[in-house]
Every structure is written in C-alpha cells, then in structure tokens.
C-alpha cells in the first residue's frame, strides 16, 4: 500500500510534471513568436491533464484510482481503531494494577471479588474483539487487492506508454501478475518494452537538464530532485518491492 502511494506520487511529480515541464521549456526556448509559446503551453496543459487522469477519456481510470484510495483510507481507519483499542486496554490494565498496589500500601485488600470479576469481564470483551478486528482487516485487504488489480488491468490497456509503464512499476514484484491472467499477457508484452524505452530515452534526457536547475529557474519549485527519486526507485528495485498488500 505504501509502495502504491509512493509510486503514484513519483509518477505525478517526475514522469508527468517534470517531463512535461522540460518539454515546455525546450519549446519555449525554440519559439519564434507568441503563438508558438501559447501552443506549447496548451500542449503542456493537455499532457498533464491527460496523464494525471483528469480528462474525459480517463474517467474510468480516475474512478478506479479513487476506489483504491478509498480502500486505503478504510484500511488506515481500521488500523487506527485497532491501535487505539489496544492502547486503551493497556492503559486500563496499568491503572488497575496501580490501584491494587496503592491499596496494598495503605494496608487494604488489593482488589475485591466484584472488582476482580469486572476486570476479567473487560479482559474477555477485549479478547473477543480481536478476531473481529482481524477479520475486518482481512476483508478490507481483499477488497484493496481487488481494486488495485483492476486498476492495473486498466493501465495496461491504456494507449499512453507512461501509464503502461506505471502499471509495470506498481506490480514490479509481479504479485498481481501471478493472480490475474490479463496482467500476465499485458505486462509481459508491454512492460519490458516500456521499461527499456523509459530508461534509455527519458532518464538520459533528465540527466542532461537536471544540473542547470539551481541557477536557471526552469525547474518546478516543489518537485523532488530527480536523483533522489531515482535512488529510491533503485532501492525498491533491489528489495523486490514488497509482497502482500503492495
């Protein structure tokens, strides 16, 4: 799940905004008049709108991406509820033990039979809630993997090469490919070709223009450095990009 979020952020920041900005800058530098600059800017807007899935042709993909993020939020809420319940239970038990010790110091009975029975009842209630919380997490995990799998299928059938390569990176360890026959066909035939095209052309181009950013002012102000992004990507590549939830 964390890998999915990081890769989507990387895709928007680097592959969409940075690449499109570089192309716009080159076209502006070569522009002969204002009409050329306006045309270059319109092409820039069209490109980022399309690749960010904000145009009318990408509505199905965008809806599926929203479904993925909805499941991520549901999983986060379920996890937070589990942590909160565990911490509250721990705090309650510590307070109960502290109360017993304080009474013993004062020369009283540490706990009465009624209080002990009430404490045992609360412990049983918490223990009974654990399987329910685990079951909820398993159900949410199943739904999450389902919507991610469908999102990957939609990406692999896209006419945009950058989106097809995104599907390859999201499932770099082939976790979903092993579960979905359509991904075995699509990623097998397109993923390797996209990977070669991206690494040879796009990365080489960014190696050239990354350096002048400090003094030229042409880079995007809030974008992550290219070298940092690529270093993180290579580390994920060596690790195998996780299993399980992905």
Automatic annotation (TrEMBL):
GO biological process, one term: spindle assembly
GO cellular component terms, A-Z: centrosome; gamma-tubulin complex; microtubule; spindle pole
Skewed-composition ranges (Basic residues): 236-246
Predominant location: cytoplasm
GO terms of molecular function: gamma-tubulin binding; microtubule minus-end binding
Compartments in which it is found: Cytoplasm, Cytoskeleton, Microtubule organizing center, Centrosome
Keyword match Membrane: no
Keywords: Coiled coil, Cytoplasm, Cytoskeleton, Microtubule
All residue ranges annotated as the Gamma tubulin complex component C-terminal domain in the record: 1-176
Record region (Disordered): 213-246
InterPro entries to which the protein is assigned, alphabetical: GCP (IPR007259), GCP_C (IPR040457), GCP_C_sf (IPR042241)
Coiled coil: 80-107
PANTHER family, per database record: GAMMA TUBULIN COMPLEX PROTEIN, GAMMA-TUBULIN COMPLEX COMPONENT 3
Entry similarity comment: Belongs to the TUBGCP family.
Protein name: Gamma tubulin complex component C-terminal domain-containing protein
């Amino acid at each position: 799940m964390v890998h999915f979020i990081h890769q989507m952020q990387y895709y928007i920041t680097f592959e969409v905004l940075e690449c499109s900005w570089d192309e716009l800058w080159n076209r502006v530098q070569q522009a002969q008049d204002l009409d050329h600059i306006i045309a270059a800017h319109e092409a820039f807007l069209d490109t980022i709108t399309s690749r960010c899935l904000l145009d009318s042709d990408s509505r199905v993909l965008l809806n599926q991406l929203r479904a993925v993020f909805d499941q991520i939020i549901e999983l986060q809420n379920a996890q937070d509820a589990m942590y909160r319940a565990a911490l509250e239970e721990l705090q309650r038990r510590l307070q109960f033990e502290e109360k017993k010790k304080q009474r013993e110091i004062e020369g009283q009975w540490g706990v009465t039979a009624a209080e002990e029975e009430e404490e045992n009842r609360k412990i049983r209630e918490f223990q009974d809630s654990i399987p329910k919380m685990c079951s909820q997490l398993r159900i949410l995990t199943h739904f999450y993997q389902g919507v991610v799998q469908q999102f990957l299928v939609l990406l692999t059938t896209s006419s945009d090469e950058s989106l097809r390569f995104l599907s390859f990176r999201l499932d770099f360890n082939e976790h979903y490919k092993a579960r979905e026959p359509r991904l075995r066909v699509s990623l097998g035939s397109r993923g390797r070709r996209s990977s070669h095209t991206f690494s040879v052309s796009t990365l080489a181009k960014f190696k050239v223009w990354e350096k002048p950013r400090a003094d030229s002012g042409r880079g995007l102000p809030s974008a992550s450095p290219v070298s940092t992004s690529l270093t993180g990507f290579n580390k994920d590549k060596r690790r195998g990009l996780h299993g399980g939830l992905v």
